[in-house]
Amino acid sequence: MTTQGGETKDLALEKPDLERIASIHVTEGEIVQLDEAEIFLREHGYDWHRVEALMQDEAKMKKLIRRVDMIILPLLCGTYMLQYIDKTTMSYGAVFDLMEETGITGDEYSWTASLFYFGYLFWEYPASYLAQHYKTGKVVAITILAWASILMITAAVRTFGGLAVCRFLLGCFEAPITPCFMLIVSMWYGRQDQPLRAGCFYSCNGLGSCLGGIFSYAIGQIDGFPVYKGIFLICGGITFLWGLIILYFLPDSPMTAKYFTLEEKTVLLGIGRRNQTGLLNHTIKWNQIKEGFMDLQVWILFIFVLLNELVNGGVANFGKLIIKGLVKDPLQTTALGIPQGGFQILFIVSGGFIATKFKNSRTIVMVMYLFPTIIGACLLWRLDRDNKIGLLFGYYIIGSFVSSLTIALQMPAGNVGGYTKRVTATAFVFLGYCLGNIIGPHAFLDSEAPIYRTGIKMILGCAVSQVALAIALRYLLIRRNSERDKIAADRSEDDQGEDEPMMDKTDFENPAFRYQL
Question: What kind of fold does domain 62-258+283-490 have according to CATH?
Answer without folding.
Answer: Growth Hormone; Chain: A; (1.20.1250)
